[in-house]
UniProtKB/TrEMBL annotation:
Residues the entry annotates as binding Mg(2+): 9, 359
Site features described as Transition state stabilizer, chain residue numbers: 155, 216
Localization, UniProt: Cytoplasm
SUPFAM superfamilies: Actin-like ATPase domain
Name of the protein this chain belongs to: Acetate kinase
EC numbers, comma separated: 2.7.2.1
Keywords: ATP-binding, Cytoplasm, Kinase, Magnesium, Metal-binding, Nucleotide-binding, Transferase
GO molecular function: acetate kinase activity; ATP binding; magnesium ion binding
Length: 374
């Protein structure tokens, strides 16, 4: 059996970690260090957790770091050296909320574990080759080129992992399957994947585009931003906070967590109901759009916290689509089963699946592949 891989996701105020056995997918220990101010102290806590399950940090095969934005340049899992850290620093403006903490986490982890290979795995990687028609925004091309404005897409590790698992579940070669993957967590994104290759995804230049999320607005008319600036006198920072943290189902309905949202809806809370309705409406628009782009799908897969757990969201996202070949099996959809499963009827031309995502395992396996070659 190979050595375990430590996967780190260093965010703005937390460090998520998981020690993964890449062969079996077994998680040896995982957790979150919250309210991080000092990344070195946070990582020390992570290493203590690793030691507590009898694994010496010297025996870790690699440390895999999730990095949100790889820009145009980085899309393969990459062995981290000083030059890469410097380049990641340069990408900070593209993902100001996400990349700087990742760089801090990487820097401290390398200082603490200098003899273990550190690998960066990019959340944008899977979408690196989006067709130009999907990747480009219709704005002045010179401005776009100068400022690297294009659609990068995010949650790529999850979309790739889940689409591979979906093909495997169906017993079909990945190359032969047209898929829609709906990653519905606190952040949410959809992708259309033809034969293993993404042809569109809902997140864009930043993770703010697309679906309604827990606290992010997803798509809005960009004119709103100018209006808020000129007429409401809001600063760009205020608008950033508004659209990233005070919007989505939380901004509309007062709750980020879908369990709480449903509770309020059941109590007759009109704001919660509206938030849910707007969320479902947007989701259905993307599903319809992607069915058109793909010329029909073989499989639609739900994943992440909401997608894996919320049967009502799955039902409402796909209700009334028999004409498009989509028929859910109500009982299967409501089953408390946690593993990969089919929730469409046996006769539904489009298979609908629920597949738990596992970004940490995907990152761990990417580290193994890279270390094998290196
Ligand atoms: P993620 O970002 O993938 O960890 O997803 C987190 C979100 O999943 C939470 O904010 C909840 O909205 C949602 N979630 C988690 N568990 C459940 C559940 N049992 N039912 C409905 N939603 C859930």
């Amino acid at each position: 059996m190979s050595q375990p891989v430590l996967v780190l996701n260093s965010g703005s105020s937390s460090v998520k970690y998981r020690l993964v056995q890449p062969d079996t997918g077994e998680s040896l220990v995982d957790g979150v260090v919250e309210r991080v101010v000092d990344y070195r102290a946070a990582l020390q806590q992570v290493f203590d957790a690793v030691s507590s399950v009898g694994v010496s940090t010297d025996d870790v095969m690699a440390v895999g770091h999730r990095v949100v934005h790889g820009g145009r340049q980085f899309y393969r899992p990459t062995l981290i050296d000083d030059a890469l850290v410097a380049k990641l620093d340069e990408l900070a403006p593209l993902a100001p909320l996400h990349n700087p903490p990742a760089v801090l986490g990487i820097t401290e982890a390398r200082a603490l574990l200098p003899n273990v290979p550190h690998v960066a795995v990019f959340d944008t990687a899977f979408f690196h080759n989006l067709p130009a028609a999907a990747a480009e925004y219709a704005i002045d091309r010179d401005v776009a080129a100068q400022w690297h404005i294009r659609r990068y897409g995010f949650h790529g590790t999850s979309h790739q992992y889940v689409s591979e698992q979906a093909a495997q579940f169906l017993g079909l070669p990945l190359e032969s399957v047209n898929q829609i993957v709906l990653h519905l967590g606190n952040g949410a994104s959809a992708s259309a994947i033809a034969g293993g290759r993404p042809i569109d995804t809902s997140m864009g230049m930043t993770p703010m585009e697309g679906l309604v999320m827990g606290t992010r607005s997803g798509n809005i008319d960009p004119g709103i931003i100018m209006y808020l600036s000129r007429t409401a006198g809001m600063s760009i920072e205020d608008i950033d906070v508004l659209l990233n943290r005070r919007s989505g189902v939380s901004g509309l309905g007062g709750a980020t967590d879908f369990r709480e949202l449903h509770k309020r809806m059941n109590e007759g809370d009109a704001a919660a109901q509206l938030a849910y309705d707007v969320y479902i409406h947007r989701l259905r628009k993307y599903i319809g759009g992607y069915l058109a782009l793909l010329g029909g799908a073989d499989v639609i897969t739900f994943t992440a916290g909401v997608g894996e757990n919320d049967a009502a969201v799955r039902r409402d996202a796909l209700a009334g689509l028999l004409a498009l070949g989509i028929e859910l099996d109500e009982e299967r959809n409501l089953s408390p089963n946690r593993g990969p499963r089919r929730i469409s009827t046996d006769t539904s031309p489009v298979s609908v699946l629920v597949i738990p995502t596992n970004e940490e395992l995907a990152i761990a396996r990417a580290c193994v592949d890279l270390c094998k070659v290196a």
